[in-house]
Amino acid sequence: MAEETTTPAHKRGIQDRPLWRLILSTREMPLLIIILVTVFVMANRNPNFLTVGNLRAVTVGFTPTAIIAVGMSILLVSGGFDLSVGSVLALSGTICAYLVLNGMAQPLAVLVVLAMGALIGMANGLMVTKLKINPLIATLGALSIARGLAQVLTESRSISGLPESFGTVGNTLLGDVPYMVIIMLVLVIIGDLVLRHTRFFRQVYYIGSNENAARLSGIAVDRMRILVYMLTSGFAALAGILLASRLEAGTPTAAIGLELTVLAACVIGGASLSGGEGTVFGAFLGVVFIGLVQNIMTVERVSIFWQQAVTGAILVAAVTIDQLIKRRGS
Amino acid sequence: MTTPLLEVIQVNKTFPGTHALKDVDFQLLPGEVHAIMGENGAGKSTLMHIISGVYQPDSGDVRIEGRPVIMANTRQAQELGIGMVFQELSLAPGLSIAENVFANRAPTRSIGTIRWSELYNQTRDLLAQFDIDIDPSTLVRNLNLTTRQVVEIVKALSLNARILLLDEPTSALPPSEVERLFAVIRRLKDRGIGIVYISHRIPEVMEIADRVTVLRDGRCVGNHPTQELTPDTIIEMMVGRKLAEIVPERHTKTGKELLCVQGLSHAKFFTDVSFTLRQGEIVGVAALMGAGHSELLQALVGAQKVAKGTISISGQRVHINSPETAFALGMAYLPEERKSDGLFLKMTLRQNISVTALNLFARLGIMNPRKEAQVAQSYVERLGIRTPGVGQLVGRLSGGNQQKVLLSKWLLRHPSILVIDEPTKGVDIGAKLEIHDLLRELAEQGAAILFVSSEFPEIINLADRILVMYAGRIQGEVHAGQATEQNLLLMASGYTNEARA
User: What is the reported pTM?
Assistant: First the structure.
């Protein structure tokens, strides 16, 4: 009977390691620890940091970024890349405000804008898969087009004067937590679980790991990649609607450069630009970390101009450390 | 007695695990076309790489015009007058002919700007020597393959090359263009240039070469003037007298016709290919490099577009336009390059096996990793995959074990037709025999198997029936019992077989 109770050494796989070691060995763990330590240190250092008001400001601030990061991390896993998300956010916010201002029912306006977001994603996906245009170029084009359209539509002014009900979702709290943040957290959790555990999204990892092999294993690679682009743009549109609701205005100049923050967050959270790696939770932690660092600089009264430089430095440092760890591991 | 342009004397080269060249001698005279022939893996490319400075010999000498030389890299070889025209042409497609020919050496004014008219005139003169009348400002991308090769040759000559290495120069050319290239080669001979000509195609070698050196297993087994040779003698030298391998007794019980291919043609790679495949049958395709056989397999599973022809499965005409469709019809495909086209090296063995049938492991769309692991484990045991566990990254397994993983992921779908490009490439002998046994077992259970192998003994050993391809066409068919390496090689080199069954 002894054979039944002990697994022979050669059959023991990585999955049989004790749970605590498995959790500690995940890619997200070091980042999570760094975040917790940072929060702990700051809480003791600056009394203004750990207050409901400040934390709320931080989380509401990074909510649009985090929502886009859900889509972007999946896109990066698939080996894709999207620079247009910031512009799509702005275009979506302005169109949504425009439609509502001109009397369209709010739920319908939201659906129309989400559909538009998905459509932009589809255009990006088609360019990348069918026309074989480099994703950097294709989505750079989309970035300019979307931003330009938002400016044309609004003549570069914010669309305001919206009915008060439009601002409900963006400005209501449930207890101490804004609705927006709850929506974001729900999306992050669902996104993470879905990417990890569903059959459908498992295909994304195969495609990102080896596109040829995925195709030759019967995965509908192009269709899948287009869908992921649609998802990313759809999330950007949703983020745009929520931001418009919070500001009670459609702003054509919103989120300039946000695509770079999102990409940085995803990469800090373990995604790789060459595809096949990354998780939604990791990308979320990346967003939290960047938001945290920017907030610390604000409460510590560091010039706002430093924030961008520091974010860049963190990105480079994170990727370097990751590379060094990988090199040692192999 | 003229001094040879190039001499290779008693050269040895070893790589981990193989003795690639053993005491090889080779000589090239001015104005001579000297062909190097041999089976896949005989050492041709290693010798080529030594002559071109890519590799350095472990022992032995290379002499140019009588002087011993050491070439540490291809640049030094170029400076010594050795020009190379390789299969993957090294031209920049987005630049003009003139810019390619004079890369980095364009005539300039004192301030560094290029004197374009002079550049074009010089290039035009060079091209005219080969009766090629094309505007030198034409982009290389717009040239056909022969002209590109000529541009490469011209480029080498403009570097004062006296020795030219041509590696399979005709493998991608249509027959009509081959003559054009030969005309160019004859002019080069007249100018006293020596040409090392590597090719699998015996008729072409018989036509263009003055001398033939044959390599086998890294040794030089013959060096004769072409007049003294016949296709048969060349083949004999290439194959040598090998002991007949013991073919295990197999009772092929072939059933109904599973696959019927008629008049299948590709714009570039193959023409008018027809054959059938029956249940329980293992059919091998014997061909030399560049014969279109790999592309034929890809076309069968929708990974290459076909121009003409029909494919029927179990009597039903099917349209296969993507791998997905092919696999849904019960086909499986194992590509030649398992690392780039077959496996997910950064993913686990478990995930590599489940990929072809994710539905088996999902309930309501949620994956069940435990079930994946159990099934993967069952294949690990069935195929004897040596791994610390199903959680191991596939990139860390040996070649043989990787190949077994590749097979496992297809066995999972119980395919009725297996299409395999090189079943045992880069696999050790133990795993090779295991894979052969497994394929025979699958055939006995009713699967039909079509495979390509560059090792003819493997084809003879494994196949019930053999199709031979040459230059994109099926040259003939041989039954396993009648196949010898000689007749396969003869047919694969462009001769029809009298003993066609």
Answer: 0.77
